[in-house]
Amino acid sequence: MSQNIFDQRADGKASVAAASLVPAIVPQAQIACLEAQLIGYALSHHVPDMRRGFDILTSYGRWHADAKPATQMAELMRQHLMQQLETI
To answer: Can you give the pLDDT of all 88 residues of the chain as single tens digits?
Structure first.
């Protein structure tokens, strides 16, 4: 079994410089993490609240979705957000 850098350092086989390397910041990972947090927030707060009913604002005005269609729309939104979460 191969040793990791920390085991190699403990055995005196790796330099201090090699053992003290800090992983580079990956902007894509930071963005993905933020997107996952936003989707998680929507799944835990917005989607459950949608089931009680909500208003949709369009350029033609406000449209209200009451409990029955709102529950169906909330389920569609949950499925959509779960698919988005899988692609991050």
So the answer is: 566 666 666 677 766 555 455 555 666 777 788 899 999 999 999 999 999 999 999 999 999 999 999 999 999 999 999 999 999 8
67: which residues sit within 8 A by CB, 6+ positions away?
51, 52, 53
**Strand, coil or helix: 58:** strand
Kindly state the tokens that stand for 60: 């033609």
- CA dihedral (69, 71, 77, 83) in degrees, to 10, reads -130
The residues near 7 (Cβ < 8 Å, ≥ 6 apart) are: none
Place of tokens 């406000």: 62
Q: How far is CA 65 from CA 24, 42, 43, 51, in A?
A: 47, 18, 19, 9
For the chain, the domains span 27-86
**Residue that has been written with the tokens 């930071």 in this structure:** 30
